Amino acid sequence: MHQIPLAEAGFNAGHIHEWRLSPPPNTFDSLTADDRPASYNQEKHFSAAVSARKEHVAENYWIGLSFKIPGRLNLPALENALLMFVKRHEVLRCGFEQLIAGDLRCDVMTPEEVRLVHTDLGPFSSAAEVTTHIRTTFNRDIDTLSWPLFLMGVVIEPTQSTVYMGFDHILCDGLSLVIAVEEVQRDYAALAAGEPLDLAERGSYLDFGDAQRHRYATLAANSPDLEYWRSFISDAGDLFPRIPLDLGLEYGHMYPARNHTVRLLDDASALEFERICRQHGTKLFMGLLAVVGMSLRDISGCQKYHGFLPVSERQDPRWQKSFGWFVNTLAITFPIADGMSFPQVVEGVQSGFKELIRNVDVPFVKVWELLAPQYFHLRTWPYPVNFFSFLDYRKLPGADQFGVWQSKTIPNTSHSNTANMWFLRNADGLYLNSIFCDVPKSVDAMDRYRAAIASTLEGLISASTRENAVARERAQSTVAV
């Protein structure tokens, strides 16, 4: 599994078929008006889209995926696998409606009402044509305020086929894309072979959002549940932790975005870094966050790390295989003062994460509304924010087949006012995917940031290699004596 820009997803020339969700026979008036409200994430995302439309802003945002099916494609089996996928996950059958009272309501199709509209688009003669078609279609048709909120397709070649899907973020998070790949591949294989399907139910994201809204409906700015956030604001100076780099960006302005992926370590080097992390009693993502903090200190001079960290909300077994936006945003603080070594910074990361995890359930959108109301009307974060994310694809469903499937997640943002970084571990190594503003100062700052991270990692690995070599020499000398 990999996370890369669409241009690098590896599409080839081929025959394209696409599917969209068909509206119910009697239009949306026949949809079931659900009593469950949208989640906090969904409501904020929807309101941002409404604001963008009022401001006549043309910005494209979607998250996509692709994967290969080896061999000659069984098209009916694929269509039925896609249909099963949509029926299985309730959030994919939703439309959203803003009520006069301000709440965002979900209108839901039943599984029996689900129909897919199949379009045969014919042959495309080059990889560039295929990629351009997918980008153009996703940009045009995936819109938070339109319906349906996703589309699916396949590029058929003689010896393999590439399935692609695009979703509005209101439907899902990055981990959901991995779940989609595994489910569709599994169902397709069963249908093509005439074997029974896995009909086990999946937890509904609508149930998750409903429970979350009820739990925090009475949360107030002075609530004890927000003490961690109030302390963070006092220390960081604001709810949104600024990235301590000059990105050359003006407040309130959005810029064309650049999407960039680079491999920081090959698999052998990544395994060595994992060994170093274990040696110091920490997990890979905490060791990596320590490296990021040290690197940021080296190029900016900052002495304390304040940043956002997205955290999965799938702790309940009901949500383990659910499709939805199960991500909360948390804040973390740890010291990175001059002279602090990797083990010392790691110790601070571990301490900071323990504090973070005690407050993992409080929805960030609610925190934003209550503790930074001056920013809550904004469509985006108010200024460039320090953001770190990590995902280990080796531990996710279907990981043993990712090499065969050549599966990829594909984030897309046409505009930005910040710089987000997603660190990814897969069977090939450690990667960094970043989306940032395509302006000279921002590009230069992010180049220096990535180079500093790579240099810090390489320095730790080189030092460890030297220490191991010395230890082996000493052992050999002892044996010789």
List how many beta strands DSSP finds: 17
Helical fraction: 25-40%
Give the termini separation: 50 Å
Q: Order of strands across the biggest sheet?
A: 1-14-4-9-8-2-7
Q: How much strand? A: 15-25%
The whole-number mean of residue pLDDT values reads 93
Major sheet description:
7 strands, mixed
* CATH topology label of the largest domain: Chloramphenicol Acetyltransferase
Q: Please, what is the CATH homologous superfamily of the largest domain?
A: Nonribosomal peptide synthetase, condensation domain
Poorly predicted residue ranges: none
State the shape.
Answer: globular
Compute the number of helices: 12
CATH class of the largest domain: Alpha Beta
Category from helices, strands and their pairing: alpha+beta
Notable traits:
Chloramphenicol Acetyltransferase, alpha+beta, 25% strand, globular, 481 residues, seven-stranded mixed sheet, 12 helices, 2 domains
Characterization of this structure:
Helix content is 38%, strand content 25%. The chain has 2 domains: 2-210, 2-Layer Sandwich (Chloramphenicol Acetyltransferase), CATH 3.30.559; 219-479, Chloramphenicol Acetyltransferase. The strands form 4 sheets. Strands 1-14-4-9-8-2-7 form a 7-stranded mixed sheet, with helices on both faces. A hairpin with a 5-residue loop joins β5 (94-98) and β6. It has 481 residues and is α+β, with helices and mostly antiparallel strands.
List the helices and strands and how they pair.
Layout: E1 2-3, E2 14-21, E3 32-37, H1 40-54, E4 61-70, H2 75-88, E5 94-98, E6 104-108, E7 116-124, H3 127-141, E8 150-156, E9 160-167, H4 174-193, H5 205-215, H6 227-236, E10 255-266, H7 267-279, H8 284-300, E11 304-312, E12 327-335, H9 342-357, H10 364-371, E13 388-392, H11 402-405, E14 408-413, E15 415-416, E16 419-426, E17 429-437, H12 440-480
Parallel strand pairs: 1-14, 13-16
Antiparallel strand pairs: 2-7, 2-8, 3-6, 4-9, 4-14, 5-6, 8-9, 10-15, 10-17, 11-12, 16-17
Helix pairs in contact: 2-4, 7-12, 8-9, 8-12
